[in-house]
Amino acid sequence: MKRRLCPQCKIPNFYLLNEKSERRLVFVTDDFRIVPSRPGETLDGFDTTVIYCLGCSWSGSPRKTVRY
Ligand SMILES: [Zn+2]
C-alpha cells in the first residue's frame, strides 16, 4: 500500500488528535484514506479532517499530502 507524504519533510508518518488531545498514529494511502499505523487501533473519536506530521510542524488536510 502506497503512503502519501508530508509536503514539507516528505515522511509518511502522521497523527490525529481527539478532544482529549490524545494522539493516534496514522498514515495516508494513495487514495486519501487515513489508516491507523498500529494494527487493531481504530480512529473512533479522532478528528480525521486535520492530520499532523510527526517529523515537522506541518498540519493540514490529508488532501495536502504529496505523492513520493
Ligand atoms: Zn513533515
Write a structural description.
This protein is an all-beta fold and about 70 residues long. The protein has one domain. Helix content is about 0%, strand content about 25%. The chain is built from no helices and five strands. It has strands at about 15, 25-30, 35, 50-55, 60. A five-stranded antiparallel sheet has the order 3-2-1-4-5, with no helix packed on it. The model has no long low-confidence stretch (mean pLDDT about 95). The site of zinc ion (ZN) has 8 residues, from loops.
Short structural description:
The model has no long low-confidence stretch (mean pLDDT 97). It is globular, with a radius of gyration of 11 Å.
| Mean pLDDT over the residues | 97
Beta-strand fraction estimate: 25-35%
Q: Which strand order do you get reading across the main beta sheet? A: 3-2-1-4-5
Largest sheet: 5 strands, antiparallel
Secondary-structure element order, as H and E?
Answer: EEEEE
List each distinct ligand once.
Answer: zinc ion
Task: Summarize this structure as a short list of keywords or feature phrases.
5 strands; 68 residues; binds zinc ion; globular; mainly beta; five-stranded antiparallel β-sheet
Helices and strands in order:
Layout: E1 14-17, E2 23-28, E3 34-36, E4 51-53, E5 59-60
Antiparallel strand pairs: 1-2, 1-4, 2-3, 4-5
The structure holds zinc ion.
Zinc ion (ZN) is lined by residues 6, 8-9, 11, 53, 55-56, 58.
